[in-house]
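Suppose you are handed a protein chain with no further information: no name, no annotation, nothing but its sequence. What can you learn? This example shows the usual starting point.
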Amino acid sequence: FAYGQTGSGKTFTLTGGTNRFGDRGLIPRVVGSLFAKARPAVGFSVSYMEIYNDKGVDLLDSSALCDAGVIAACAPSADEPPKKLSCTESAETGAMMVRGLTQHPVRDLNEALELLYAGDLQRSVRATSMNSVSSRSHCIFTVVLEERDQTAIRRSKFNLVDLAGSERIGRTGAEGKALDEAKHINSSLHFLEMVIVSLQQRQQHIPYRNSMITWVLKDALGGNCKTAMVATVNPDSADTDECLSTCRFSQRVRCIQNSAHQNTELDLEKCVAALQRENQQLKSQLANEDQLGTRGLTPSEQQQVLAAVAEFLEAGRDPAPPPCQLNGSGPQLYLRAQLALSVCRQVVAKPCHSCGALPLLRRGGSFAEHLELCDLLEKE
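A reasonable first move is to predict its three-dimensional structure. Written in structure tokens, the prediction is:
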């Protein structure tokens, strides 16, 4: 955001001039850099609002775009009052949202700049003793980036803010409506400084709700964000006090410590679809396993079973088996039982009521033989 007194160059720094490409301001340069570096899957949308007398106004509603020639169809009534904007906080993520503010998808830099300049035509300006085209409102141009993958959504938001200039009413000689505007401007800038001081001192309560500008910019001032300030000053010796005030304010902003991390949230619709696909796959596997118990082994499955038997026998030579004198068989019977159970647990069929293994009728064996070996192993 740009901060400074009236006539010090905030609007020109943010927006720039329209006559030459080299005179473009920070907003065109930032948006152009984002489009140049973003991956193809990233989607862009922009919004433009002003806060005039502590009330939000959408600079890109349908009537404003019609007046600027961006769209052909206008609102039904030209005298229709602008929509009232209100701030709300998401109960799930805690992110700030402005109700009633239109979001416009853009595909390239030209579309974004077209909306930027269309909104500039709707800004509230007035001639004062210090600036012939003084901004009488705070303006926020927001760029939202969004990228989606199979189950997650990543979002990032850029708030590019042109604050109205601080001014001493005694110097400007403002009267009537201009005086009311100056009071609202100075009041909102005072509340912004209160928030900055609270963040600098790491107070538990941050007074974001005192003003609409601080409430809208809650995500951009403290917490999960990166904040940059442009301090604009007038080199005239008569403005020394205003220059020092701007420098003191910028010093407070510099002391704020934020911790930015990636905004990632689950896409519930895609998560449900993925779980449904996985559920269907598991059902298909269960159906195939039920069919497996009613047929014999394929040659490849027989090779897998023989390999498992050979691996078991090789591993069973090292440890000494426990003594066993059942029917004079000793270790051989123990190994036979272990072998049967090992092979049975690797092949899918109906389970044994005694050990829970899944035996399969194969190579002359029988289910009764398995039960006999299982009982002997339990005795052993």
